[in-house]
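Technical annex, item 7. During the second reporting period the consortium partners agreed on a shared format for inverse folding records so that results from different sites could be compared directly. Each record opens with the tokenized structure and is followed by the designed sequence. A conforming record, contributed by the partner at site C, is shown below for reference.
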């Protein structure tokens, strides 16, 4: 499969939010001859929406008559109305979940003598909300129903088996052939194979399988204690892969195959709006500085969960760029729908090939950083920044950027993997720093211009995996409030590379020190001055100012990782968080 092309032009995951496994062992073929089902099973990793994380609320959920088994990812918005109706009809509920409603609803329809696929289809027509759902009936164990609306669902087609999951990571150990269900589709899997129909009108859908390129090695820990650590150490390769074959240095050009079909529209774009969540949003903020400085395009970045409820002023001259590792983030998807309705060109920067965002955008660029399993995003972030730099070259060269500048950015990008390797050699020193600082209950992360987003990202990494309170702030805002918190018990991590705002950063750093606040500086190797002001320094090699956030990200990830280890936190699976946020 040519992954340089974006889905739609031609055709192209982390511990998933939930897994559903269903395997027909032997004798059963996709579009093949009938056989005998030997094993059918469903399982689910729940991320609580309705009802706490208790055993009663754990999936699968069953009804009260035929004991239908249901697992579900998403939110049933009208569950209260449905539940009331079903209770009036005599159904007895055992959990607080919205999912249980589905089991009773399907059972109620089955009571008319309707077949299971028909009952599920009719039941889903009454449902408002989002679902990736699997249904099993122990009374008819030769079939399994899968349906999707607004939550991802992918079917692995193996040798005599089908494996259904919310993303491809649990599947690739068994097969590289996958079929992505689209919204509003339902698949019935029996020994005779898989039939897909539309939920609304029962129209048959023909869909060929696609091949995935990720391998089992990609999703294993490979000797590392945690996926997060592995993914931090994969960044030299990831940043190299994200730019591999994507530039023509002597012409100062980026060559992004996924944008070629929209090149003319891109040349006319007057404004860019970037939408994303979490770490991807921080990448977008760096992209804003890059696009404005080097491509001269007014750019705005919005958190997707806000964008979807604002009345953003968008028109045909606006390109909307959605950034997402998983390609399945519910708020980002809703924002894309809004942007498409307003006639904007919608581009994606996505890691998971074939994901919903990749399929629904007009064009885009894959990260190619390989699967990211740890919940805390690391290599996807540096991959996003790499792709944003390449996009900046594309858009800049269509406008005022010179060949020399384009060439310089590309050459500096090429030098980054070796520079990240150099930072990784400081792991032991960073672990020592973590020991010294891990007991502090609060941290301030500060940075200016390109590294203001680094401050936000550094604080997020620490919060999410070590549960230590940290705030990211633009350092120029210090004296507008946060400085009041600073004393000897309140450390700061300060991004102060030797860039165009270095002098300003030094002044802010002095302000912290004057109040007794301990400071860890992230600074440019060879800076002889910074060690005199900061208590501790982590060094990053010199690079172009616009690319410093790529290097600055690595020590902040390592620092958060080491603090989390010392505090005995579950690094790869922080409490209350999921890798793909497929619910609003
Ligand atoms: C933080 C993190 C999250 C994600 C966010 C968006 O480390 O991983 O903040 O960045 O949930 O996810 P994607 O990129 O999949 O849209």
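Designed sequence (site C submission):
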């Amino acid at each position: 499969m040519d992954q340089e092309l974006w889905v739609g032009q031609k055709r192209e995951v982390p511990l998933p939010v939930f897994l559903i496994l269903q395997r027909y062992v032997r004798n059963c073929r996709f579009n093949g001859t009938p056989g005998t089902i030997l094993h059918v099973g469903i399982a689910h990793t729940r991320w609580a929406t309705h009802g706490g994380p208790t055993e009663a609320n754990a999936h699968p959920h069953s009804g009260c008559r035929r004991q239908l088994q249901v697992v579900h990812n998403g939110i049933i918005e009208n569950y209260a109305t449905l539940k009331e109706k079903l209770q009036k009809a005599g159904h007895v509920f055992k959990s607080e979940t919205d999912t249980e409603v589905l089991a009773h609803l399907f059972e109620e329809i089955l009571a008319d003598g309707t077949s299971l696929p028909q009952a599920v289809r009719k039941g889903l027509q009454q449902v408002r909300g989002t679902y990736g759902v699997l249904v099993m009936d122990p009374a008819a164990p030769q079939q399994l129903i899968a349906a999707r609306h607004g939550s991802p669902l992918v079917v692995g087609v193996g040798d005599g088996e089908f494996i259904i999951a919310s993303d491809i990571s649990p599947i690739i150990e068994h097969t590289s052939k996958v079929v992505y269900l689209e919204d509003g589709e339902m698949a019935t899997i029996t020994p005779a194979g898989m039939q897909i129909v539309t939920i609304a009108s029962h129209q048959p859908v023909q869909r060929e399988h696609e091949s995935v390129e990720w391998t089992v090695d990609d999703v294993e820990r490979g000797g590392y204690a945690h996926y997060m650590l592995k993914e931090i150490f994969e960044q030299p390769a990831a940043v190299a892969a994200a730019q591999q074959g994507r530039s023509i240095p002597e012409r100062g050009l980026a060559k992004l195959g996924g944008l070629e079909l929209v090149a003319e529209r891109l040349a006319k774009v007057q404004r860019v709006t970037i939408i994303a969540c979490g770490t991807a949003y921080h990448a977008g903020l760096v992209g804003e500085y890059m696009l404005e400085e080097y491509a001269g395009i007014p750019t705005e970045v919005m958190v997707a969960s806000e964008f979807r409820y604002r009345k953003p002023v968008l028109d045909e001259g606006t390109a909307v760029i959605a950034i997402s590792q998983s390609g399945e983030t519910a708020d980002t998807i809703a924002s894309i729908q809004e942007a498409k309705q307003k006639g904007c060109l919608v581009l994606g920067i996505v890691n998971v090939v074939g994901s919903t965002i990749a399929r629904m955008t007009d064009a885009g660029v894959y990260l190619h950083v390989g699967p990211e399993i740890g919940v805390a995003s690391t290599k996807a972030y540096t991959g996003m920044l790499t792709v944003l730099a390449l996009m900046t070259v594309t858009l800049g060269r269509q406008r005022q950027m010179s060949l020399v500048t384009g060439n310089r950015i590309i050459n500096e990008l090429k030098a980054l993997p070796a520079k990240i390797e150099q930072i990784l050699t400081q792991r032991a020193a960073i672990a020592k720093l973590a020991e010294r600082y891990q007991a502090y209950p609060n941290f301030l992360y500060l940075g200016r211009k390109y590294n203001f987003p680094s401050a936000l990202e550094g604080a997020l990494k620490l919060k999410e995996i070590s549960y230590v309170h940290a705030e990211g702030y633009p350092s120029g805002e210090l004296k507008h409030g946060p400085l009041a918190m600073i004393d000897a018990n309140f450390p700061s991590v300060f991004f102060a590379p030797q860039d165009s705002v270095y002098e300003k950063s030094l002044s802010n750093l002095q302000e912290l020190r004057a109040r007794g606040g301990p400071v860890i500086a992230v600074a440019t190797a060879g800076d002889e001055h910074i060690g005199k002001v900061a208590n501790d320094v982590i060094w990053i090699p010199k690079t172009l100012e616009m690319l410093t956030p790529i290097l600055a990200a690595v020590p902040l990830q390592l620092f958060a990782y080491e603090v989390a280890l010392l505090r005995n936190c579950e690094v790869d699976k922080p409490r209350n968080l999921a890798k793909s946020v497929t619910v609003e």
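The first strand starts at residue 61 and ends at 62. Confidence is low (pLDDT under 50) at residues 8-34. All partners now use this format for quarterly exchanges.
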